[in-house]
Structure formats: C-alpha cells, structure tokens
Amino acid sequence: MASFTASSVSFSPVSCSLKQNQASSLRKASLSFSGKGFPSHRLPALRFRVACAAKPDTVNKVVNIVKKQLALPDDREVTGESKFATLGADSLDTVEIVMGLEEEFGIAVEEESAQSITTVQEAADLIEKLLEQK
Amino acid sequence: MALKLNASNFQSPKCASFALPPVASVRSPKFFMASTLRSGSKEVETVKKPFSPPREVHVQVTHSMPPQKIEIFKAMEDWAENNLLVHLKPVEKCWQPQDFLPDPASDGFYDQVKELRERAREIPDDYFVVLVGDMITEEALPTYQTMLNTLDGVRDETGASLTSWAIWTRAWTAEENRHGDLLNKYLYLSGRVDMTQIEKTIQYLIGSGMDPRTENNPYLGFIYTSFQERATFISHGNTARLAREHGDLKLAQICGTIASDEKRHETAYTKIVEKLFEIDPDGTVLAFADMMRKKISMPAHLMYDGRDDNLFDHFSAVAQRLGVYTARDYADILEHLVGRWKVENLTGLSAEGQKAQDYVCGLPPRIRRLEERAQGKARANEAPRIPFSWIYDREVRL
C-alpha cells in the first residue's frame, strides 16, 4: 500500500502541473527545484521535470482526516486525486475538513486558499506550502 | 450543489451562495446565503455584461413533492381554518403605518416631521444601511406572495380562492404589506438616505425574484417560511433595540411592532410544520434536512443597486457586525426549530429519515463552531469600509 501510494503521488505532480495553470503549482515547482521536499536520489525518472507533490505522509494525514469527517470506512480508497465532492462532502464538510487540517498541522488557512481546495492532493499541497512558510 | 469551498455554495466573488468576496468574508455569515450568479461570470455567460443584477445559479427544481401528498393538504383545510387563520388579526384591529408617522392632516405635521428628522440625525449610517436593507426586503413582498402560490396543494388558484390556505396567504400578504409601507415612509421622511437608489434597488429586486429551492413542495415551503419569520422577528427586534439605544423611541416602536407581526406569523407557520410532523414524520424530517442542506437563503440575496456587484454580501456583513442578524442567529433559529418540532424524539423513521434526523439535530453545534472560527479570523483583520449608494456613497465599515 505504501509503495503504491508513493508512486501515485510521484506521478500526480506531473499531471497537476501540466493541467493546472496556477501560480501556486509554479511556485511549488520552483521550490522543489531548489531541492526542498524531494531528495534527488528518490526522484523518479520522469520525462517532465516538475514535481509539485506533497509528501506521502502529508497526503496520508489528509486522507485520514477526510475519512473521519465523512465517516468513510477504512477500506474505502481515497487518494490524492480524490475529490471531496465525489467522496460525499458537502460545503459544510469541506470547511470542517479544512478546520481539521488546521488543527492537525498547526496552520492557519486563509479563506481564499481554502476556497481553492477540491481534492486531497490540493489540500496536502497547500498544507506543505503553509508549513514551509512557517 | 457544487461542493467546492469557493463555488456556488460558498465564497467566490462571482458565485456566491454563502458568498462573500474575500475582503467582506471576514465577518459575515457567508455560509448562510443562497446561490447567486452575476451574469458577468464566466461560468455561464460568454459575453460579460457589466452592471447587471445577479441571477440564481442552481438548477431550479420543480414539483418535488409526490402528487399523492397533495391530498394531505386538502384534508388539512378544516384544521387550517381552525388553527391557522386564528393567527391572523382582523383588519379593524390592525395597526396601520399612519399610526406611527407624522399626521399630514394635522397642524403639527411640520413639527412632527422636524422631530423625526432630528432623531434620525443622531442615528449612524451603518444602522441606516441595515434598516434600508430590511426595508428593501420587505418591499419585495410580491416575490413572497408568489413563492407561497408556487406551493402545490395550498396555492391560491384564482387569486380569490376560498380555501383556508388561500385566505391565509392573502391575509398574510396584506399584513406584511404594511411593513414595507411603514419603513418606506419613515426612511423617506428621515432625510438620511437616497430614496432614488433605494427605489431602484427595490425595482431590481422584485424583477429578480428568488428561488428558495422549495420546489413547489409545501413541506419545504413551510419549513422555509418558519425559519424566515423567526429570522425577521429576530432582525427587527434587534433594529428596535438599536434604535432605542440611539435615542429614537418612535423608530424603536416601529421596528418592534413589525417584529411582533413576524412573531405571530412564525407561530402560524411552525404550527403547520408541527402538524406535518404529526401526519408524516418521515417526509417532514426529510424535508427539514433537505432545506438545511440547501441552506436557508435570504429573500433579498439577489439585491442589486446598479452599482455594487456584491451588495447583498456587503449589507449582510454590516448586519452581522451590528448584531442585527448573524451567523449565530442562524444556528439559534435552527436549534429552536429542532426543539420546537421535537425532532430528537421522532420515532418510527425510515433509515433515510433517521439520517435526516441525525443531520438536523447535529447541525447547530457544527454551525456554531464554524462561526466561532470565522469570528476568530475576523478579529485578526479589520474589515474594510465601503460606500453604499443607499446613503449617497458614504462609507460604512463591513
């Protein structure tokens, strides 16, 4: 399971940076170029350079918080790509998930940033960004 | 219902259900407003139309009540005659706006007007913003009578139908009509506000209508009106209190009198839903949960004055700051209704019904927690001052 998660995480930044044209992922890309977050010997041999993914550990913590908020069974598959909406979260759930993340990671999420979170991956990325800023 | 935090149900500046633009969002009960769309938004229009009033963004569902349930309301006619109409006041016993305004037929008229204006001068702009917003809401009464007449089983089929339901709706409308009239005349005489801008806002608002997502379904409709009447009771009660604090006892009396009407209406509507819980507990609790999931949208959420694209958000932020109508009030109303209708004690519910029961009973504390978080963040940033056309573009802090 852990290795499966790790490999899915390492591929998703490729898709996330390609499809999203957000300043945030560009910023993350430059951060990872500077060496933070991805020890170079662990970088998968990707054709595309950009790595904007959060650590698997962060993603897992987000997954757990989401599962708890939405009362999902442990065996329900929730990955970085999972959208809150698809998992059954309504708008109140999403806000409470963000609150749970704030408490878990000791961060404060701005309203504007909170508004842009729709998937587990986006939540994890935002968390890492905020942790780096601390 | 879009579930992104920033989408129709939450907070994009363009798609604002609970919406507030980020600056104003600091303090307001943005969670509690309905889905709106500015027609300039890219999500829907290819051509941006500047300066146009907002429109509902959600898909408008109709006739969601199974037609066989219409019978329930036909069968309730006698009950309605004996239990609902009693909450109406005979016209001869009703107050009229003139009772609270300077008397044009009297020699003392000019002095009375002068005194009214002197008292009004002592009342700050932010209070007037909220009072104007309330008045505009009341003046959009055609929309609310329409909404009641969209409901299956209880609508006034001809405009003069003699069913108890139709009699109630017309008489309710007639009572409410005095509210807008009274506030309009007071604001006109006060000299503190730009009547042209206010009148424009009213024209836009009636033109926009509203969809409270009651889907022609009287279960949803009467739950909605129960909530709303209590909300207006609280809101006018607070404007009355504030008017007293500002030294205008006559205005306090005006707002207080309107509030007492709303309380009487709340009693009536909650009685209907109480009866529905008795007749069809499962259907009613499902309806209650459905309305709360969709969130109770404020009647004037589509308000527009030709200038401010986020007028309702701005108005609500001020109402929140002044304590006239807050996110906490929303939670309190919900909690009150859960208790009033004894939702916790319902038995014999289906599995779906039990889920609905759990949802509704568990919702007030969740909303309170949300509101505390928002207030905590609000204290960190001071809200901006923005101009309101209703007061000649003078600025008020959100």
Number of continuous helical runs of chain B:
14
- Bulk shape of chain A: globular
Please report the distance between the alpha carbons of the first and last residues of chain A.
Answer: 31 Å
Rg measurement of chain B, Å: 21 Å
Largest sheet of chain A: none
Helix-strand string of chain A: HHHHHHH
Order of strands in the sheet with most strands of chain B: 1-2
Overall pLDDT score of chain B: 89
Strand content of chain A: under 5%
Largest sheet: number of strands, sense, barrel closure of chain B: 2 strands, antiparallel
Structural class of chain A: mainly alpha
Order of helices and strands of chain B: HEEHHHHHHHHHHHHHEE
SS element count, helices of chain A: 7
Distance between the termini of chain B: 28 Å
User: What are the low-pLDDT stretches of chain A, counting only 5+ consecutive residues below 50?
Assistant: 1-38
Percent range for β-strand residues of chain B: under 5%
How would you classify the helix and strand content of chain B by structural class?
mainly alpha
Number of strands of chain A: 0
What is the subunit organization of this protein? heterodimer
Description:
The complex is a heterodimer of chains A (134) and B (398). With 134 residues, chain A is mainly alpha-helical. Helices cover 60% and strands 0% of the residues of chain A. Chain A contains seven helices and no strands. Chain A has helices spanning 2-19, 23-33, 56-69, 84-87, 91-105, 111-115, 120-133. In chain B, 56% of the residues lie in helices and 4% in strands. Chain B starts with 21 loop residues before the first helix and ends with a strand. Chain A binds chain B through residues 84-85, 89-96, 98-99, 108, 111-112, 114-118, and chain B through 1-6, 9-12, 17-18, 22, 25-26, 31, 293, 366-367, 369-370, 373, 377.
